[in-house]
């Protein structure tokens, strides 16, 4: 049953039903108390079960079952066995303990009453959260012994409850250990649910439930394991002592040549690579494909407060604004459908167009871009969302896949491809990484930039020469500056093909490859490899550029 139907059925029986805003708040409160999750965007953090997620609201046209399925997306991580820096297979359950999290990673432990925040690690704040209201989980397990029944009833999924209990009592705080003493100390100091100290999770497992395989929180345990393998610095003083400690530990337990192997997360757009999933995901989203943006007053010029139920001006916060007041903000000058790529651009718009002095709270004005569907170059799987892509590629990287194994393009939709910046084709990354100046979006190589500038100048000179002998050729119709080498080479070879075709020359792959060498190295030495020596790139170039030229000629 949809939320709107539940609301109507419950409150219509009242003689004096509360206002719609109070009905809305009442249902949100019930969900927060019974299911231990927030269903209102006002009280949710921007990162939920996984990095990059957005607040999940229980909308009026969704059932409670649909809402819970969106709150807890499954990502099967199996038996939680991973490889450490020495290549050994490690079981996370014997590694990711509270004691090591505090001592090795330097992270603080903090309780949470939001089920989605369980095992969430905040690198900047230096905190790991864990859900401590275990009595609620046990009540749900008793009420719904059937795994499928718990989902259909709109309860906390049974698998979620079992994973939380297992991760608390067998991973973070195993009994009869120093970690258990840490939990007892936290419980007495922070006022946690006393039930979290009762190590009786086995009593709530059904007889037919064998060894627990993680489907919800496994990725977070893997993230903690990787942080323990290579802890991040915690401030200036902490990082100095931490670095000293790690240097002592590394001499004792880690192999000497480990820098390259630790960067297990390669960017799929440039030659940069990263030690952690968080850094990798942030890099790809911020420097290569950020389809999100900011929209001016997406909920209208008057916003309804979730706390008071009253209206206020979206621009300055004035309570119960009059039409005259709203006109003072020059609403007619605003293009409501415009998306601003950065938050500061929207702030500038508010000041210049709407005469806003004190910027209002605009975090909720962030809008999602279109769904990003793509293909995996490792297994050819089709992925429908960016989050699915992130989780899927991470699973490949953790099993040792690198960009040498990638085949083909990303296969984004054309509108998404247009948003990609600072990128080269993914199947070229492995070979480009081995050159003397790999392409990097994060730290541009000065030698690479200088060489690319020389190549650009050489390409422009070629265009001028071809234009002199070919009146129909003309000057290039696009700027050649600020392009990656594959883009520049594709345009150059396209003009080269036009010139040769007018001379009646039948073009071969070798001719394209020699011209690419002449442009890049000033010679046609076959030992000098270029992008054109990549069969996949050359085939794609022929299909895109030569066929287009052929159609234009006809």
Automatic annotation (TrEMBL):
Residues 233-244 have a biased composition (Low complexity). It comes from the Eukaryota. Keywords: Metal-binding, Zinc, Zinc-finger. Residues 230-257 are annotated as: Disordered. Residues 245-257 have a biased composition (Basic residues). PROSITE patterns: ZINC_FINGER_C2H2_1 (PS00028), ZINC_FINGER_C2H2_2 (PS50157). GO terms for molecular function: zinc ion binding. This is C2H2-type domain-containing protein. The lineage of its organism: Eukaryota, Fungi, Dikarya, Ascomycota, Pezizomycotina.
């Amino acid at each position: 049953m949809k939320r709107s139907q539940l609301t109507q059925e419950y409150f219509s029986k009242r003689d004096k039903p509360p206002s719609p805003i109070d009905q809305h708040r009442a249902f949100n409160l019930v969900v927060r108390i019974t299911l231990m999750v927030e269903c209102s965007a006002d009280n949710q953090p921007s990162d939920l079960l996984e990095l990059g997620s957005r607040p999940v609201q229980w909308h009026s046209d969704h059932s409670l079952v649909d809402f819970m399925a969106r709150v807890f997306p499954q990502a099967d991580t199996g038996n939680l066995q991973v490889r450490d820096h020495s290549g050994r297979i490690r079981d996370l359950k014997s590694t990711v303990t509270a004691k090591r999290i505090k001592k090795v990673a330097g992270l603080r432990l903090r309780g949470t009453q939001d089920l989605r925040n369980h095992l969430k690690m905040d690198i900047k704040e230096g905190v790991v959260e864990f859900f401590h209201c275990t009595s609620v989980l046990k009540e749900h397990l008793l009420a719904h012994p059937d795994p499928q029944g718990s989902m259909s009833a709109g309860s906390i999924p049974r698998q979620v409850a079992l994973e939380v209990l297992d991760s608390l009592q067998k991973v973070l705080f195993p009994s009869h250990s120093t970690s258990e003493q840490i939990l007892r100390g936290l419980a007495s100091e922070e006022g946690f649910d006393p039930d979290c100290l009762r190590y009786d999770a086995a009593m709530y497992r059904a007889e037919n439930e064998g060894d627990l395989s993680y489907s919800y929180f496994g990725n977070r345990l893997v993230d903690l394991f990787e942080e323990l393998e290579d802890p991040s610095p915690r401030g200036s003083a902490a990082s100095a002592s931490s670095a000293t400690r790690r240097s002592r530990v590394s001499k004792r337990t880690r192999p000497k040549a480990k820098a390259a192997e630790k960067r297990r997360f390669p960017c799929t757009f440039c030659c940069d690579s990263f030690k952690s999933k968080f850094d990798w995901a942030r890099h790809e989203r911020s420097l290569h494909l950020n389809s999100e943006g900011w929209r001016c007053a997406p909920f209208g010029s008057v916003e309804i407060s979730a706390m008071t139920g009253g209206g206020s001006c979206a621009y300055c916060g004035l309570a119960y604004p009059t039409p005259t007041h709203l006109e003072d903000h020059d609403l007619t000058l605003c293009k409501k459908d415009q998306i601003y790529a950065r938050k500061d651009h929207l702030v500038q718009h508010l000041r210049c167009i709407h005469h806003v002095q004190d910027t209002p709270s605009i975090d909720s004005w962030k809008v999602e871009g279109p769904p990003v569907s793509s293909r995996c170059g490792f297994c050819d799987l089709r992925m429908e969302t960016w989050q699915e892509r992130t989780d899927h590629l991470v699973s490949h990287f953790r099993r040792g896949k690198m960009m040498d194994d990638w085949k083909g393009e990303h296969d984004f939709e054309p509108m998404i491809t247009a948003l990609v910046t600072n990128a080269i084709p993914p199947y070229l990354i492995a070979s480009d990484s081995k050159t003397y100046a790999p392409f990097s979006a994060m730290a541009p190589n000065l030698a690479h930039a200088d060489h690319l500038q020389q190549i650009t100048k050489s390409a422009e000179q070629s265009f001028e020469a071809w234009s002199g002998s070919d009146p129909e050729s003309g000057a290039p119709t696009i700027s050649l500056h600020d392009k990656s080498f594959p883009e520049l080479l594709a345009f150059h070879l396209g003009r080269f093909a036009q010139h040769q075709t007018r001379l009646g020359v039948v073009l071969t792959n070798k001719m394209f490859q020699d011209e690419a060498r002449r442009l890049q190295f000033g010679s046609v030495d076959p030992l000098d490899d270029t992008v054109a020596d990549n069969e996949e790139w050359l085939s794609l170039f022929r299909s895109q550029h030569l066929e287009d030229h052929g159609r234009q000629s006809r």
